[in-house]
Amino acid sequence: MARIVGIDLGTTNSLVAYMDGDVPRVIQGKHGDAKVPSIVGLTDNGLIVGEPAKEHLVRDPSRTIYSVKRFMGKSLADVSEELKYFPYKLKEKGGVIRIQVGEKTYSPPQVSAIILKELKLRAEAHLGEDISKAVITVPAYFNDSQRQATKDAGLIAGLEVLRIINEPTAASLAYGLQQKTQGVIAVYDLGGGTFDISLLKLKDGIFEVLATNGNTHLGGDDLDRQLVESVMKDIDKQYGLKVEDFPDLMQMVRLESERTKIRLSNEDKAAMSIPLPDGKGTYTREWSREELESLTIALVTQTLAPCRLALQDAELKVSDIDEVVLVGGSTRMPLVRRLVEELFGQPAHCEMNPDEVVALGAAVQAGILAGDNKDMLLLDVTPLSLGIETMGGVMSALIRRNTTIPTSAKEMFTTYVDAQTSVDIHILQGERELVKDNRSLARFQLKVPPLPAAVPRVEVTFLIDANGILNVTAADIRTRESQTVQVKPSHGLTDDEVEGMIRESFQFAAQDIKARQVIEARTEADAILVATEKALKRGTDLIKLEEVQAIHQVLDELRKVKDQDDHRVIRAKISDVENVTHHLAEELMDSTLKEALENKKLSEVAD
Amino acid sequence: MSTQPTSTDHTSRELPMARSMCWHCQSDVCGEYFCGRCVKVQPLSKELDYFTCMNLPRLLSIDEKTLEDTFYSLSRTFHPDFYATKDEGEKCVSLGNTAILNTAYRTLKNPIQRAEYLIRLEAGSVKDIRSTPPADLFEEILELQEDLDEFRALAGPRDSDRGRELRSKLQNDRATLETRQEQLKARLFGKFQEWDALQISSEATAETQSQKAAVLKAMQEILSNRTYVRNIVNDLIAATS
Ligand SMILES: Nc1ncnc2c1ncn2[C@@H]1O[C@H](COP(=O)(O)OP(=O)(O)OP(=O)(O)O)[C@@H](O)[C@H]1O
Ligand SMILES: [Mg+2]
Fold first, then answer.
1. ipTM for this prediction
2. A201-210 burial, b for 16+ CB within 10 Å, e for fewer?
3. A189 assigned to active site
4. Thinking of the domain A4-218+302-379, which architecture would CATH place it in?
5. A246-268 pLDDT, tens per residue?
6. How far is B186 from chain A (nearest CA, A)?
7. DSSP run (H or E) holding A105
8. Does domain A220-300 have CATH number 3.90.640.10?
């Protein structure tokens, strides 16, 4: 069987991994980092993805899409409160968000597909073979629409998605494989945009999920926003500037807030400095870890209630948990660790890199599906109850949350009036009593033979497959004839739309790859130009005049070649700049802090 | 890592399969879960009861460990993860069988669901177990309902004297009912023993048949009371917390 890769499609970072014999490994990019920032930039020349797009973010925020996972399977109303944080325009069509960039609109699965394609290319380059099959992870608490959207993204990217698997359970596979753990473990996963808690029983290679809970709209992004809000108020008070009126400033504030948050995980204090527009100078402030913690403790505390609910659903006490495993970048925050360890009354495990463990687990699952691993088996659950609308706007549950999947429920339908030929069925997901408080998944019309009222009997089977995705079939009990059910998703792309997007994505694929390399090189050139100018300003006195002149010259050369269409020429010039500025970088570093910086590049030192 | 248990542990008893003939090669060479000739996985019968599915006699006391072992072992036989490279037909059978298996395990693992399932199975009907108040609590529950209605109507000023009085009364009621829930559960488990004893020891005489029917009826009543009490307790929790 062709190779299957494992993909962690994250809100902030995405990774691809594969099985190297019995060992899962992440695939690194050119610069040695396995994480691809989940960011897509749309430039005049085409698409850029990952690290180059991150650099593009501050320069062209309205055409740079990040955190698109927050929009998967959502309508505009679902995200109305956070619109102001996003520099791009959002619209809605057919219950699905569309992101407007210039003349074009993109659905969230299309944007995710661009990221998936980047990972696919990366895997193909590394493994030297075509990759067409993947296991993709999603937050455990993702609903049906969000899972379906992820599957669509895979299709659009030209990947057959063999399995959608939950992130915390994927992590448990990698963890269990490495640590040979037996017993009950709690996986606490706080990433960039989502939070999951899963409780699992590990026994003789079986990974049985006992309960799962979470919040698909709570993660590091939200923690950043607490800081962002404070900074915005500060800037308004001190400078009379409304940050939201300046999209690039907004992005700068956002990125700088995240950077400060991350620094405060290791240090007690961190300085923040943000240049302001309109010649208003620079906003600077020092933040302490306590300040950050008091801003974020309410949000982090919000993760504890789902943990308690999961324990309750699994009928477990805190003392039944043998190990607590931390996953996701945000669990590096000391506050998060503290609260989790307090709740579970034990130190948490973080032997495995919290950034990589999900992708590694996806690769393990890929190995299972390929038939290479017959020892391990994951038995997962559906996170949300599934039901249908009944009289009076009430949801009647057919499948309870935390039911092991695959699972099915059957329901018999009949008619209320004579010669009625169809019955409308509305499928819902959620834990609340009333239809309006739950998630509408889909609707469909059941065809019934025209007979006297209450005579027809059509049995509908709702089956949740191993991906946690719903499949509906129907059969007439009297005639034993089955009928195909055309389910119309409430918040999803139609089959036709997906088809169209697949075609479109293939048309662009070939031209994209060539253009991409050029754009990436050009973007890097721009970044290095800015960084070097900045460094020169600060460090002119630290180096000899001839050196300064040499640097100016090579910068001029780079400016000249960077608009050429050959990425190799641009890259060659970039490494020239790096060579010529090496000494300046060292001096700058020495003059600031006395740390070894053998391999630091100028662009990293300058800011 | 354990190795996959050889399925012969379980193959001594036969599970009813959907067809006597293999869906794929039409051969009638019966294997256990797999066709004896083409080795394709076979669908479980729609009529299969969960006790048989789990290789268990129709008793209410179940060894959880045995049940879990069987569940894990059958999961290794049927789970779709092990059929990803197989053809559509086998994938479909694997999916259907696993869905049945998961429901069987969930139903039998929980003692209440297990009892409800057995009653349905033995009574031969699919009638749901209704919720009825325990006869001896009838008066008290009527009063409690009135208090509850009044308390709910007090929407705003619940820290009035009357509000506090009602709240503490309702909290007492809740404690009483929770004790009752426990008692009902204990009585139900007592019936489990009676049922199992009858199942194991006796031949199917008319007398044991009627004894069994009596036990089933008693369990049904306990379960109806339990459902009723549980619903009220939930209402009380919702109203007073
Ligand atoms: N040292 C750190 N301290 C605090 N936060 C950190 C640290 N390192 C990374 N983060 C945060 O972790 C988040 C990214 O984590 P991760 O890569 O696990 O998320 P993701 O997988 O992309 O998102 P998700 O799983 O929610 O879809 C970001 O919000 C980032 O700011
Ligand atoms: Mg993640």
1. 0.84
2. bbebbbbbbb
3. yes
4. 2-Layer Sandwich (3.30)
5. 988 999 999 999 999 999 999 99
6. 19
7. strand A104-106
8. yes
